[in-house]
Amino acid sequence: MLNETRILKIGSLCITNGLLLAPMEGYTDQPFRRICRRLGADLVYTEFTSSEGLVRMAGRTARKISLAEDERPAGVQIFGRDPERMADAARRLIEGEPDIVDINFGCPVRKVTGGGAGSQLMRDPERLLAIARAVREAVDIPVTAKLRLGWDHDSINVVEICQRLQDIGIEAVAIHGRTRCQKYTGLADWDWIARVREALEIPVIGNGDVLTPQDAQRMFEHTGCHAVMIGRGVMHNPWLFARCRAWLDEGRDLPLPDISDRVRVCLEHLSLAVEHKGELRAVLEMRKMYPGYLREVPGMRQLRAELVTLTTEASVRERLEHYLEQLAQNPDPQLPPSENQHG
């Protein structure tokens, strides 16, 4: 796989390298997508968006599907259980000029499956196909779908469903190698992704348990997939895309970024978030990102404890910049950050 050209063609969209950011609720907002694109993701997806929310176009929904020019190509993912409402939602998306409309048939979360959407639809293939057909007929841009293997190990039906999705014009499928009942436990079964790849002519995207550059290589080689979609592996680690690309293209195993680089990306993320959703909301939502950006830095526990008390961009920036200054003066790994100087 090393040094081979990887090309993913979805309709008229042609993407090289094939490293994709998975849609993740609460994480793949516009600021994070922009960070991931800059660090090497070739295609990014929005958080999943309810068809009902899109039809009403509430304020938060509009923000979720808003695309910046520097994150393209980008796909918008939608979910729902009613074919007509899903088609209407897809038509409303076109105003924002997404590159792809993606349909979520894989979410395992109870609040989604309990409403008859997400991976619940794999128990009702005819409704699933009716939704896909309605969305496909509603828009003139590529339509893709993301699925799990099935509801449980006794009802794995992903190959048959994907063959029928291909027949009605879906241009690519992304397969997470677990059933709904597994949620995120156990190991993803890449053998099933390979079976889907063997059965289809449209592109197949592999997803599940890609946490390192070497995992990405193994996914390509094991499944024959056209692209690798990474979710939890980049949730707090967006530079994984750059590391995967270096490994796949050149066989170079890039080291993890140093502390100053991680802080710099963290502050860039915060600045983009403030621009996109306002200062207070951005600062509060960034709190969940600190464990990843600041993993294993000296004095991490106390630093994080201080950061989560701050409510302005300036105070977070001042605290992190002071931390870097202090660390440069005394790089002792036991060095604790000074207490409450910038809280």
Helix and strand layout, with pairings?
Elements: E1 7-10, E2 13-16, E3 19-21, H1 30-38, E4 43-45, E5 49-50, H2 51-56, H3 59-65, E6 74-79, H4 83-93, E7 100-105, H5 110-113, H6 125-138, E8 143-147, H7 158-167, E9 172-176, H8 190-199, E10 204-207, H9 213-223, E11 227-230, H10 240-250, H11 259-277, H12 279-286, H13 290-293, H14 300-307, H15 313-329
Parallel strand pairs: 3-4, 3-11, 4-6, 5-6, 6-7, 7-8, 8-9, 9-10, 10-11
Antiparallel strand pairs: 1-2
Helix pairs in contact: 1-11, 4-6, 7-8, 9-10, 11-12, 11-15
Tally of helical segments = 15
Structural class: alpha/beta
| Main sheet summary | 8 strands, parallel, barrel
**Rough outline:** globular
Outline of the structure:
With 343 residues, the chain is α/β, with parallel strands linked by helices.
Characterization of this structure:
With 343 residues, the chain is of the alpha/beta class. Helices cover 43% and strands 13% of the residues. It has helices at residues 30-38, 51-56, 59-65, 83-93, 110-113, 125-138, 158-167, 190-199, 213-223, 240-250, 259-277, 279-286, 290-293, 300-307, 313-329, and strands at 7-10, 13-16, 19-21, 43-45, 49-50, 74-79, 100-105, 143-147, 172-176, 204-207, 227-230. The strands form two sheets. Strands 3-4-6-7-8-9-10-11 form an eight-stranded parallel beta barrel, surrounded by seven helices. The protein has a two-stranded antiparallel sheet with strand order 1-2. Helix 11 (259-277) runs antiparallel to helix 15 (313-329). The longest helix has 19 residues, at 259-277. The chain is globular, with a radius of gyration of 21 Å. Residues 333-343 have low confidence and may be disordered.
